[in-house]
Every structure is written in C-alpha cells, then in structure tokens.
Design goal:
Helix content is 35%, strand content 15%. The protein has two domains: 60 residues, no CATH class; 151 residues, Alpha/beta knot, CATH 3.40.1280. Helix 1 packs antiparallel against helix 6 and helix 2 runs parallel beside helix 5. By secondary structure, the protein is of the alpha/beta class. The longest helix is centred in the C-terminal third of the chain and has 18 residues.
Length: 219
C-alpha cells in the first residue's frame, strides 16, 4: 500500500502551512451549511484545529458545503463555554468575540499575528452573554447597511483572512511545518496520507511508522 508521490507532496504542502496558533471557537451554530462553510474557510486559511461548544460529541457539518475539508481540519468539541475558554487560555490563546456593544473594537485595529482565537456565535442571537463575559476583546466588523450583522461563516472568513493578511505582512506564515510541533506534524502527516490505517494502529496500540520522502511507509 502506497500513495502517489504527487499526492503525498500536495498533502505535505498543505500541512506545512498549517498553524496551531490560529483557531475559532463556535457557539450555538446549528445550521450544517454554516458549520461546514466555517470549516472550509479554516482549511483555506491554514487553521489546524477548530473548536466547537456542543452538548454532544459529534459536530454535524459534513454536507456538500464542506467539500471534504473536515478531513483536513481537526475538530474539537467542548461540553461548555467554561471548558472551552479555560482550555484555550491554557494553550495561550487570546479570545476575540464578535459582539456589538459599547466596548467593541473595530477588528482592523487589533493584532492577530499570534495565539488568536475568534469566537463566533449563533446565526440569530450571536454569542451568549456568558461567553461575551469570557472573551478578552469584543470586536465588530463595520457595516453600512440596514442590517448590522453578517452570516456567521462570512464573519469568520473576514476575520481569519485579516489574521492571514497581518501574518503575511510580518512573514509569519509557515512554509516548512514550523506552525506545528513536530510530534503533531508527524502524526498528522501519517493520518492524512493513510487514513485507512489509523484504526488498525490505534487498536494495536502501535506508534505510527515513519514515511520516506515519497510517502512510503518505512520498514
């Protein structure tokens, strides 16, 4: 069993630009097409892992909107907003919550070049008051229309690509896998290359093998 070298190089190129220090936290977004669109944007922006607050273990997002991007973005579910915010803060993230209030700051005036988590809320109601109270900064996207809110997936795309713009301007976009710790990089490279072998290695409690430069499993 092996992978085509061209396919392996594509996988490596994508993984090489993934970032652990840019993520999203989604609260109460229940429409599958919106969740799927957010994941697709995360994939396009180079986000390694997306976070969700749900009362169940599976995030139902895998409709045609995702275009298979859920295979390339890790999904982490949190049972509560406190669990989520505590975990992200422990990992060093600063939380930027989309909320229009008297303390909100124009998103263009902030620095998203490191340890950034954008906190996005439900389609109709936005973030809960409890979660707004937990974020480090409330941010807003200026608008000139009658409606003062965007679709959650659109808002997520604007914010993520502003972070990407800032990082590009500061030469902070990874190109050789430096956006991930090396243990995570090696593990993910194997799982992306040989997803059909993941279960067998986990069931046998064996470490993943190394891959050579062409993506072949080293004996």
């Amino acid at each position: 069993m092996s992978v085509l070298p061209r396919r392996f190089q594509k996988i490596k190129n994508v993984l090489n630009s993934r970032m652990e220090d840019l993520t999203v936290l989604i609260e109460g977004v229940n429409k599958p097409h919106n969740l799927s669109a957010i994941i697709r944007t995360c994939d396009a922006a180079g986000v390694f892992q997306a976070n969700f607050i749900c009362d169940h273990s599976n995030v139902k997002t895998f409709n045609s909107t995702a275009q298979g991007s859920q295979k390339w973005v890790k999904l982490r579910n949190h049972e509560s907003y406190l669990e989520a915010t505590n975990a992200l803060r422990k990992e060093g993230f600063k939380l930027y919550g989309t909320s229009l209030n008297e303390n909100s700051i124009d998103y263009r005036d902030l620095d998203f070049t490191k340890n950034t988590c954008f906190v996005l809320g439900a389609e109709k109601w936005g973030l809960s008051k409890e979660l707004i109270d937990q974020v480090d900064e409330s941010i807003y996207i200026p608008m000139n229309g009658m409606v003062q809110s965007l679709n959650v997936s659109v808002a997520g795309a604007i914010l993520l690509f502003e972070a990407i713009r800032q990082r590009k301007n500061n030469d902070l976009i990874p190109f050789e896998g430096e956006g991930l710790n090396q243990e995570e990089y090696k593990k993910t490279l194997f799982e992306w290359t040989y997803p059909e072998l993941i279960d067998s290695y986990k069931k046998s409690n064996k470490d993943y093998p190394s891959l050579n430069k062409d993506g072949e499993i080293e004996k």
